[in-house]
Write a structure and sequence with these properties.
Elements (H helix, E strand, L loop, with lengths): L4 E4 L6 E4 L13 H8 L8 H9 L17
Antiparallel strand pairs: 1-2
């Protein structure tokens, strides 16, 4: 089993440790709709500070990531 991985937050660009299935983020209290909101805007994890903002509903102004139609370059 590997240990935590250092990642860079897609929102604020700060580095943080991701623990995978045993990660700190499991204790933040993100709802299913908030998880869907994150998935629509980011490719990977957010740092503790940004995830707390999502949990509090403070990141509503972020655009949805573009979706490339099948076959588009």
């Amino acid at each position: 089993m590997r240990g935590p991985v250092t990642k860079t937050c897609e929102h604020c660009h700060q580095t943080f440790e991701c623990g995978g299935y045993q990660c700190w983020c499991g204790n933040v209290g993100i709802t299913e709709p908030q998880m869907d909101w994150i998935a629509a805007r980011f490719q990977d994890c957010l740092c503790p500070a940004c995830l707390a903002l999502v949990s509090a509903g403070s990141l509503e102004g972020f655009p949805v990531k573009p979706v490339n139609p099948a076959g588009a370059a």
